[in-house]
Each structure stands twice: as C-alpha cells, then as structure tokens.
Amino acid sequence: MRELRTLDLFAGAGGLSLGFELAGVGFRPTFAVEIDEAAASTYKRHFGTPVYAGPIEDLEEFEPAEVIIGGPPCQGFSPLGRDRDDASRAEMNELWRHYLRAVRQVKPKAFVIENVPEFQRSAQFAHLLQLMATDEDLSPYSYGFGVLNAADYGVPQRRRRGIFVAVRAGGDLETGPNLPWPPRPTNGPDSPGAIPYRTVRQAFEGLEPMPEATDVGLDDENRQNLHFRRQPRPMSIERYMAIPEGGNRFDLARNRWDITPDCWRNKPTGTTDVMGRLWWDRPSVTIRTEFFKPEKGRYLHPDEHRPITHREATRIQSFPDSFEFDGTKTEIARQIGNAVPPLLAKAIALHVFEQIERAESSSKS
C-alpha cells in the first residue's frame, strides 16, 4: 500500500484525520495546524505528528503532502454566529483564503474543505468557484461539492456539513465541476441494501445508565473515562422528569407549568429542540459544543433524568472509545462538538482515494 501524506488545517481534535486514517488505504497525517491549544494537544497525542499550535496567518511554509484536508472556522457563516460583530465575522470568513494559500504552495493531489452548509451559499464560495476556473494553481483540479448528512455514512447523528472535494485531473477525469458526487452512502434509503440508519440506542450500547463519575478520569483499565454525569439542581431534575422521550420544553410547559421558567412561559413559539430528549431508535440531532446543557438543545438522555455524557457525545460523533482528549471537560466538549464525525470523514477519504486512483491510472494507460 502506498502512502498518501495528509496536511490537516484548522484540525481541531482530528476528526477528519481520524476518518482518513480509518479508511485504511494509505492516508497518513504528517502535519497539522490548530490554534486551540487543547485541541492541538489532543491531535498530537493521538497521531504523534507535529502540530503548529498558532494562527495559520503566521505560518509561512506548509509541510509537503499529497492531500490537504480541513475545515476553516465556520462561525462567520453559521446561523449560530449571527451575534458576532461584523469585524469578527469578516475575519472568520477570510480564514478559508489561507487554506487556499496552502493549496497553491503544496500543490496536492487532492484537497477537501469542510464547513457549514451556509458556506456553499456565500459570496466567498462563489469566489472560490470562480478561482477554480481562473487561478492557474486551482484550475488543474476536478471538483465536486454538496451538503452531506453524516447519518448517511454510519454516524448515529443527523449532522449536515458542506463538503468540497477537489482532485488533480488526469486521464478521463476532466478539470472543472466534473468530480463524481456524492460519496456512496453506507446507510439510509439510498445506500446499497437500504441499510438502516444507526441509532442512539446502538451508540449507547454497553454504557451504564447513570454513571457515578462526575468529571474526566480513568476507568478500571487506566483508560480515559468520559462517561461522567453532571450534578443538576433538584429543580432541574424535576423539569427533566416532566419531559418524555422525544419531548421538549413545550412538554415541560404542558406537564409542569409551575416549574417552567418565565423565559419559556413568555415564548410560546420557537425551537423544538430546547430542553429536548433524544429518541432511542433514531439518530441523534446535531451535537454541538455545549451538549451538556439541555437548555441549549435536544441533549437529554432518552429516559434517564440527565444530559448526555461526554462519552455518549463522542459515540454520537462516531469517535471510538480508544480516542483520548486533552483539556478540561469544557475544552473536551468543545473539541467533540466541533469535530467532523470520523465515519463521515472515512467515506470522504475513500471517495478521494478512488478519484485519485482513477485520475492516475487512466493517465498511465
């Protein structure tokens, strides 16, 4: 098996790199860039590769690689970033240009840009497509893009991400928007054999319903233990008890108006995920960085009166239990919520490998 070196930009804890590694076709991470110190430490711990833990703007030379992967910060495009000031949003939105700087310098066989779906409806993305046609360093690539749902690729979570894949053209792989798309689903109605989506029940299999631990620690086999609970106030527990599987704050208001917070009493409409319970036999909703706070979304366990644990969140994200994180429990939660689900990344990696092989083999024949 030949080796394909990967350069991971805006790497986070390494969800993309892990997926490329799990693909088992020769991808090997050799360098990463990540400004968050805890995430950079996690990446280095798992992959054992050098990590530049600083602003990408300050990095002049990128390491050589056959494939560049990464997700420029999405707060400028995401609906969750609407409260940012204009200057902050503009700074975030410009970071993807440093990704292209790396592409121009390294000239990889392929590159992958991951972001929120909104990025692909932005003026910046329109400019990217224009550059793919006119820039001499980008025009030799064939590309494809679209919004992928992680549940279609074996992840027990409905998480939509905008993915852009470019492969250096050759043979019968022509430049421009000609890359086959999307990667073949492994689950859902469009997958071969219509394999069912993975569910929360499958993800949580083997985990004790009410863990004793209350912080990050080690288990009996000296491995990192992320299956720990919060210690909510008695009033919070009463509120949880009023919400059935799949329910939310509106069920709380119907069942226990007396303990419903005023902010929800005075807002009879709005999101249906706040103070929501997950369903056992469905994929989870999108896991975000504050999944341990039920007031932020549908993060209550399907029937236990508690938020999901960090371990449950990593499983929903499709990280193996053997993957260990550095940092405080809040820093770890941020890494989990920001990560690309490794099984989604694996499907992208296999697609990239197939197209690299196609371009190279047809060029030789």
Question: What brief labels describe this structure?
Answer:
13% strand; single chain; alpha/beta; 365 residues; DNA Methylase, Chain A, domain 2; 7-stranded mixed β-sheet; 2 domains; Rossmann fold; two-stranded antiparallel ribbon
Architecture blueprint of SSEs:
Layout: E1 4-9, H1 15-22, E2 27-33, H2 37-47, E3 51-52, E4 67-70, H3 86-106, E5 110-115, H4 123-134, E6 141-149, E7 160-168, H5 200-203, E8 217-218, E9 224-225, H6 234-241, H7 249-255, H8 262-265, H9 310-316, H10 329-338, H11 342-364
Parallel strand pairs: 1-2, 1-4, 2-3, 4-5
Antiparallel strand pairs: 5-7, 6-7, 8-9
Helix pairs in contact: 1-11
Description of the molecule:
The protein has 365 residues and is an alpha/beta fold. It has 2 domains: 4-197 and 341-364, Vaccinia Virus protein VP39 (Rossmann fold, 3-Layer(aba) Sandwich), CATH 3.40.50.150; 200-338, DNA Methylase, Chain A, domain 2 (Alpha-Beta Complex), CATH 3.90.120.10. Helix content is 32%, strand content 13%. The chain has helices spanning 15-22, 37-47, 86-106, 123-134, 200-203, 234-241, 249-255, 262-265, 310-316, 329-338, 342-364, and strands at residues 4-9, 27-33, 51-52, 67-70, 110-115, 141-149, 160-168, 217-218, 224-225. The strands form 2 sheets. A 7-stranded mixed β-sheet has the order 3-2-1-4-5-7-6, sandwiched between helices. A two-stranded antiparallel ribbon has the order 8-9. Helix 3 links the parallel strand 4 and strand 5. Helix 1 packs across helix 11 (342-364). The longest helix is centred in the C-terminal third of the chain and has 23 residues, at 342-364.
